[in-house]
Amino acid sequence: TTKFTSALDIPVAFVVKNVKLRGKLHHITEKGLEVEHIPISVPFITSIQRKWQSKGLLLVRLAGVELAPGGMAWLQQELKPKQMIWFQLLGREDSALECLVLVNKGRFLSVCLNEEILRQGLGRTARIEGLRHDSRLYWKLHKRLLRAELKALKKNKGIWREESYSERIRDRISNNKFVQTLKQFASWLRGS
User: Fold this and answer.
1) Residue 32 in domain
2) Helix, strand, coil in percent for the chain, rounding step 5
3) Which top-rank group of organisms is this from (predicted)?
C-alpha cells in the first residue's frame, strides 16, 4: 500500500523477489520510462495515506534491451501518457530500476515491451543488469529476449533489414559519378 517515489524507497526484498508493481506512465526519455507508482489500494487506508504521500516518478529501464534510434520513436508512438503499465523488478542501479515492462493490450492480453522492441528489430539484446549470471531467471529471460531478436533477424525487420538486390543496384547507379554529372547537366539545361 506504500507509494514509492524513488528507486531507493523500494525495499531490497522486493527487488530480490522480482515483485511486479503497477504504475502510470508520464514520460519517455533517453534514460528510460518515468512512471508514477500506483500502490495497491485498500479503501479506508488509501484515502488516509494519500494525504501524506509525496510526489515523485520512478525511472524504469527496459532490462536486457539496448534501444536503437527508432526504438524511442516506436515507444512514444505505442505508449500513451497516463497509460497503466506493470513493471517487474529485476534490479536497481542508483536511481533507476531494471525491469520487464508489461502493457495490457485488450482485456486478457498483455505484451512484454522488452520482447516486442526486439521482435520489431528496434533494439539489441544486452546484459540484464541486476540479475546474477548464474541464476535460472537470468537465463530464462535472456533466452526469451534472444528468441525475440532472432525473429526480427529472420523477418528482416528494423536494424536487421538488408537492402534487396534491386535496391543495391539502384543506389550504385544513382551514386555513380557519370550519372550525377548527367543529372547536373539536365538540371542546368532546364534552368537555361
Assistant:
1) yes
2) 40, 25, 35
3) Eukaryota
d(CA 118, CA 137): 19
Query: DSSP E strands: which ranges in 56-170?
Result: 58-62, 65-67, 84-93, 96-104, 110-112, 123-125
Q: Quote the CA–CA distance of 175 and 181 in Å, as a whole number.
A: 10
Q: Are residues 145 and 176 in the same domain?
A: no
Q: Is the dihedral of CA 78, 84, 89, 92 positive or negative?
A: positive
Q: Sort residue 31 into left (φ over 0), alpha (ψ -120 to 50) or beta.
A: alpha
Total domains in the chain come to: 2
What average pLDDT does the structure give for the chain? 85
114-168 residue pLDDT tens: 999 999 999 999 988 888 888 898 999 999 999 999 999 999 888 887 767 777 7
Same domain flag for 111 and 145? yes
Say yes or no: 187 and 122 in one domain: no
Residue 62 · residue 117 · CB < 8 Å: yes
Range of the structural domain that residue 58 is part of: 7-161
Coil, strand or helix at 183: helix
Distance CA 15, CA 12 (A): 5
The one-letter code for the residue type at 68 is A
Task: Please answer whether residues 120 and 110 qualify as being in contact, where contact means their C-beta atoms are separated by less than 8 angstroms.
Answer: no
Helical axes 177-191 vs 165-174, angle rounded to 10° = 60
